[in-house]
Design goal:
The protein is built from 14 helices and 27 strands. It has about 575 residues and is of the alpha/beta class. The strands form seven sheets. A six-stranded mixed beta sheet has the order 3-2-1-4-11-12. Strands 13, 14, 15, 18, 21 and 22 form a six-stranded mixed beta sheet that branches. A five-stranded antiparallel beta sheet has the order 25-24-23-27-26, covered by helices on one side.
């Protein structure tokens, strides 16, 4: 029987990891793994390097392994780093709202055009769209070097006509265009503005990265379908990801969570606090009865809520390479990072050096512990290296503890949402901690004391994110609207509009939603995904002619999950 493999790659803030998993069904074996330093200014090169390192680890028969790969899934920090560092693309924002609150209150950036015209909540045109102001604004944007545009109408999920008209005008002028209704069917106008804006801001960067990904895979002899990890813990084919880059902006914490689910059976019961400590940050998330907890109000980017579903997670600027500083207020760990630890050839002491100094007597060290101790001695010559190291470790761990407590309190302040069930009638109170990441072995005992919870570190914890990426199943969601008074059904994100009869009902809408999403996924190479209904609502209305009608809304999804586990 032909052996099959799944490849996961995670481009993190410090390292790019690869994990090759063999087998089908519940159990998958780790056939190969690799780790290289991430080149922040050239992630595609990091990808090529990690594939070369993986091939080297597999030996002279690596081509046979690569030829047997059935699927590749990647997680990357490229887009979120660009946003945080203000290196994303400048965006022209075209808004059409009609009556109501001034949409400029919700605008992002400095290049905004309010286009006259508007629709009502059913999608009926109240005022025709006047595109001349947009034409004038677009020409000014072009002169300022702007090449990306986001077009957003207030009620575009009910009728995308105005967005499509704006987009057509911008397309004629050579802009790369994002349309808000293609990203979500929700009617939340402020969040749809933010979603479309960020999608446009990272679009070109995203496409360039995916081009490089595809080229690197082909050059390595890998012809398998490729997927990208999403913020909600699912994956999406690269072709679909190109249409909605914003969905994959926060894939890092998602990779951590899915990796822990694949490596650690204890998270199947009760509530677990998940920690992924890398070189730069520690990602923190929650799992309830084996299902990750979701961010109830959508992914937050730079302080703005979006319509992108994501896991409830926080990141704190504490990692193994976090710089240690000493001032009048005491000893601090992070959030700055200026390279690797002294133990691995760095120039300044980091949290990992502090942990090496504290753990040296127990033999739990990483790299050159003598270099770590010398660096701590030089940093604070008036105190012992052990004293400085202890203060640095306490500071870093206390920051992690405080961030974890804030996440737990925030999640419990509102109903708990998970990937398995949208509402769970219980609180999320952690019973255990699962720790992964490069420094896991060095920090485990002290973290356990700081959090006052048992801490578990599974095997292969240092490549957990790549394992999670490899095993994550494709997922997608779809929202449809049906109005029997107007005789129309719309699936905004697919740009589908169909005629329906007056007898069309909720059951027919749910069936049609599942059919559309199943066909959409099949076209993109994810034909095995199981589709389920998440929400189904119906309201009695009056048609334009005064007859009784029905307003129907259905949300369905291909449920996220894992293709296998790494335990027997």
């Amino acid at each position: 029987m032909r052996k099959t493999f799944r490849l996961g790659i995670d481009a993190g803030g410090t390292h790019t990891d690869a994990a090759l998993l063999e087998g089908d069904g519940v159990l998958k074996n780790l056939a190969g793994r690799a780790k290289v330093k991430t080149r922040h200014d050239d992630l595609p090169s990091s990808l090529c390097e990690v594939l070369a390192a993986l091939a080297h680890s597999l030996g002279p028969n690596h081509a046979a392994f690569f030829a047997g790969i059935d699927g590749v899934t990647l997680g990357a920090t490229l887009a979120v780093n660009a946003l945080v560092q203000d290196k994303a693309e400048r965006v022209g924002l075209a808004l059409s709202a009609g009556p109501g609150l001034n949409p400029l209150r919700f605008a992002l950036g400095h290049d905004v055009c309010l286009v006259p015209g508007g629709l009502d909540h059913r999608g009926t045109e109240l005022r025709s769209l006047q595109t001349r102001p947009l034409f004038d604004a677009a020409n000014a944007w072009k002169k300022n070097g702007i090449a990306a545009c986001a077009c957003v109408g207030k009620f575009s999920p009910r009728n995308p006509a105005h967005e499509q008209t704006m987009a057509a005008e911008m397309d004629k002028l050579g802009f790369s265009v994002t349309q808000g209704h293609r990203l979500s069917g929700s009617l939340n106008f402020p969040r749809r503005i933010a979603t479309a804006y960020y999608n446009a801001a990272v679009g070109r960067l995203h496409h360039t990265f995916l081009d490089a990904v595809e080229a690197a895979l082909i050059s390595s002899g890998i012809r398998a379908p490729a997927f990208l990890l999403k913020a909600d813990g699912g994956s999406v084919p690269l072709s679909l990801s190109r249409r909605c880059p914003v969905q994959s902006i926060l894939s890092g914490p998602a990779a951590s969570v899915m990796g822990i689910l694949a490596l650690c059976p204890s998270v199947e019961r009760g509530c677990s606090l998940l920690l992924d400590m890398g070189g730069t940050t520690t990602d923190i998330a929650l799992v309830l009865d084996g299902s990750p907890v979701l961010e109830r109000d959508g992914m937050r980017l730079l302080g703005r809520r979006t319509l992108v579903r994501s896991l409830a997670a926080v990141s704190v600027g504490v990692g193994g390479d976090s710089l240690i500083t000493v001032d009048a207020a005491g000893v601090h760990s992070g959030p700055m990072r200026e390279g690797p630890a002294l133990a691995f050839g760095g120039e300044r002491p980091t949290l990992l050096d502090a942990l090496n100094t504290l753990n040296a007597s127990q033999g739990i060290i990483a790299g050159d512990a003598a270099a770590s101790i010398r660096g701590l001695t030089t940093l604070a010559p008036d105190r012992s290296p052990e004293d400085t190291a202890g203060a640095a470790a306490r500071d870093g761990l206390n920051k992690i503890r405080d961030a974890a407590q804030e996440l737990v309190e925030r999640v419990n302040a509102r109903p708990v949402y998970t990937l398995a069930a949208l509402k769970a009638a219980r609180g999320a109170l952690p019973e255990r901690v699962v720790l992964v990441g490069g420094p896991a072995a060095s920090v485990r005992e002290r973290l356990q004391a700081c959090l006052a919870l048992p801490v578990e570190t599974p095997d292969n914890a240092d490549v957990a994110n790549a394992v999670g990426a490899a095993l994550t199943l494709p997922t997608a969601s779809l929202e449809i609207y049906a109005d029997t008074g107007q005789g129309v059904l719309r699936a905004p994100s697919l740009d589908i509009e169909e005629r329906i009869g007056r007898a069309f009902n909720l059951e027919a809408a749910a069936l049609r939603a599942k059919e559309l999403l199943t066909a959409h996924l099949a076209e993109e190479g994810a034909s095995d995904a199981a589709v389920e209904i998440l929400e189904a609502d119906i309201f009695a209305t009056l048609s334009d002619c005064g007859y009784g009608a029905k307003d129907i809304r259905v949300v369905c999804q291909a449920a996220p999950g894992l293709a296998g586990r790494l335990w027997a």
